[in-house]
Amino acid sequence: MLRHTLPRLAALATLLAMPVAAHADITVGAVLSLTGGGASLGIPQRNTIELLPREVAGQKIRYVILDDGTDSTKAVQAFQKLVNEEKVDFIIGPSVTPTSLAVLESAGASGTPMVSTAGSQSVIEPPTGGRRWAFKLASPESAMLAVPLDYMKAHGGKTIGAIAFATAFGDAFTAALESEGAKRSLKITGVEKFNLNDTSVTPQALKLMAAKPDAIFMATSGTPGALPVIELRNRNFPGLLIANQGVANPDFLRVAGKAAEGVVLASSPVAVAEQLPANHPMRDGAMAFVNVYEAKWGANTRNLFGATTWDAYLLFAAAVPTALKVAQPGTAAFRTALRDAMETGGEVKGSAGIYKMTPTDHNGTDNRSLVMVVVKDGLWKYLP
Description:
It is a single chain. This protein has helices at residues 2-22, 39-49, 72-84, 97-102, 104-110, 141-154, 168-183, 202-210, 226-234, 250-256, 283-297, 304-324, 332-344, and strands at residues 26-32, 55-56, 59-67, 90-92, 114-116, 134-136, 159-165, 187-194, 215-219, 240-242, 264-267, 348-349, 354-355, 371-376, 379-383. By secondary structure, the protein is an alpha/beta fold. It has two domains: 7-139 and 294-367, Rossmann fold; 141-267, Response regulator (Rossmann fold, 3-Layer(aba) Sandwich), CATH 3.40.50. The protein has a six-stranded mixed β-sheet, with helices on both faces. Strands 8-7-9-10 form a four-stranded parallel β-sheet, with helices on both faces. β9, α9 (226-234) and β10 form a beta-alpha-beta unit.
């Protein structure tokens, strides 16, 4: 009798285990710059994760957040810990371009989809190797430059200099400046570089100003992006200061202070959500994030970096139902299905952009995802 009972008990145990496997938790990891030069980006990203749903498509979500200290080596270590120890299905981050580039090999080797919240297209182009697993939400450098360069030219500007981070982020933006400037017959008078931890850019500012450009473009992000703004204002640079949306956060405005007045940039509409026309395609998505974020963290705390984290979740959530039809969370097949669903899932309207990913375009934004803004009275103002 025991000989017949044991196989039946084993079969029953297998049946009882099946529903548990079908409802395994989904694990979402995050590699963020919570300390170091990128902290003003990573902290609002962490704050946003605190607000994200804990369940999607009937599956519970477990979040694991690690700090990379804005250091590429630590970013790789954190990414590998999430993959090897936490068995994550999906990763948000890293926060900045150098750390995002550093983890691409780990993403490819482990087959783990990631949505970088960094700015550079170099994170996703070309879409081969580890980049096959990487997505990026900020608009391309060329798009972020096209809008303010048109504005500059419309106001009579003909020459432009640039100061940029001495990183892949800065290199990508200065390359885009050369390309977009040439399209508009603008003369580039000089390009200067500085490091994220530098405390002075006086030599670079003086050299740029000596060429007397009509405008200076700053390829920077976060609070370190305030350094050239303050220096150029202190030196009474009379021209237009153009930034990119890497500085679109309250900490930049706080650190730059009055020096930021008049700075223009092409930004995600979330910075000026309430000021958008009622029929703007981004208004509803941007306001959805602003209302939730500022209800928790206070008035005027919304920022691009929190918004891109919010949108990373939206892309992930849109892909989960399709992936669940293919495999269970915690498996390589599920991670692959997530990536594939993100590439083919159609348009997703977020708070920082509108995305339509494809296997060859892991950004998927268009001109609806950018608006022209100016700093006025210490706040971002919409420039129709």
